[in-house]
Amino acid sequence: MDTESYKNGAKRLVSTPQCTTCENYIKGNALHCKCYDSEQKPKYVMFPERECPSYCSHAPMVLDIKNEKESRIYGSLFGFCVGDAMGVPVEFSTREERKRNPVEGMWAYGTHHQPFGTWSDDTSLTLCLIDAINKGYSVNRLAQNFVDFYEKSSFTPWGEIFDIGNATRDALIQMCAGKNPVECGGAEENHNGNGSLMRVLPLAFYAYKLGDDDLIKMVEEVSSLTHRTKRSKLACIFYVQFVIQLLENEKEHALEKTVDFVKKNCRISYADELQYFARILDKQILSLPEEQVKSTGYVVDTLEAAVWTFFHTTGYREAILKAVNLGGDTDTIAAVAGGMAGAYYGFCDIPDNWIQNIVKKEELYWMFQDFGNCCNLVKG
Ligand SMILES: [Mg+2]
Asked: Which end of the chain is more exposed for a tag (fewer CB within 10 A), N or C?
């Protein structure tokens, strides 16, 4: 515990002294930083509440991005992870709280008491899918990764699970007990949380070359491990297709093409579900005022909030801050919006100090590189 800072007036007793990942930090003393030698260190830097304007990573990661396609795939995957990490400290906070005290940079601690750059189950389960694809996708391999996540805390930032949805946990308990993975996900009305939407992003890069039917089948299969409802699956289909379209189209055109895709391919099999997505499919979402956009963990609310955020902002940073400041299920909404925004604006639009603060950033980069090669996407 960082008792030294606490004795010196820090408001919280923290397990990791702030600034240890910063090159200006003086080792062993969380209250001292070379950047603030001649002036007082601002309180919010001492009590990790906000991004430090002087932050400079002592081990900066530089990505070797060769072309537009690489920029978009790394932009989307890191964009997702960074969005998750930005939302973690304020998950479950209300919109009113965020209006009073808006997030304007990267924060630490808060809801789950995690250091800067800590990502949650959204990213962990997305990494499970990436790893399964990297090793040759099969549903059993994906299920085994989920079991390892649940039983051994694999694919986590600090070797522990601090956040997991109820439906996902229930499904993983059954998976650990040996049940057929595709039958583990809940199939009732109350199993329409965003737990599968938050982990299907890689399919936009892996399955985009498949025909429409096979793409849909794969998205449905991946969703069903934790969420078997038609509504959850349709949200995943929409999201994956929208990110695919964002790689090659302007925003509005990408939305139009995605709506056409859903209407063409899901009109019959999802006939009873389309009504729940009406505000997206008829593009009403583009003109909704913020008061009419909910930011809960219900899968339709999360998808709407992410799409709304993406269309009401003009860059990655702005999109993530807007998503987080909606309050509610901030990590998942910012992650889902981050996957879209990163794919559209590219990696370079993500603030560098957000990237440099991400826990295990190198490991993520290595996995993403393998994944890019696997998808045969980053070759030209
Ligand atoms: Mg989470």
From this structure: C
Is the domain of 8 the same as that of 125? Answer: no
Count of the separate structural domains present in the chain: 2
Q: What is the pLDDT of residues 214-226, one digit of tens each?
A: 999 999 999 999 9
CA 96–ligand 1 middle distance (angstroms): 21
Tell me the mean pLDDT in the region 92-107: 96
Cα gap 325→327, rounded to integer Å: 5
171-224 per-position pLDDT tens digit = 999 999 999 999 999 999 889 999 999 999 999 999 988 999 999 999 999 999
Look at residue 214 and tell me if it is in a domain: yes
CA 125 to ligand 1 center in whole angstroms:
10
Cα of 84 from ligand 1 centre, angstroms: 7
pLDDT tens digits, 333-370: 999 999 999 999 999 999 999 999 999 999 999 999 99
| Residue-range definition of the domain harbouring residue 271 | 68-374
Interval between CA 32 and ligand 1 midpoint (Å): 32
226 CA → ligand 1 middle, Å: 15
Interval between CA 264 and ligand 1 midpoint (Å): 32
CA angle 317, 322, 328 (to 5 degrees): 130
Residues with CB in 5 Å of ion ligand 1:
120-122, 163, 331
Read off the pLDDT band of 32 (50, 70, 90): confident
**83 CB neighbour count, 10 Å cutoff:** 35
Q: What is residue 336's predicted lDDT score, i.e. its pLDDT?
A: 98
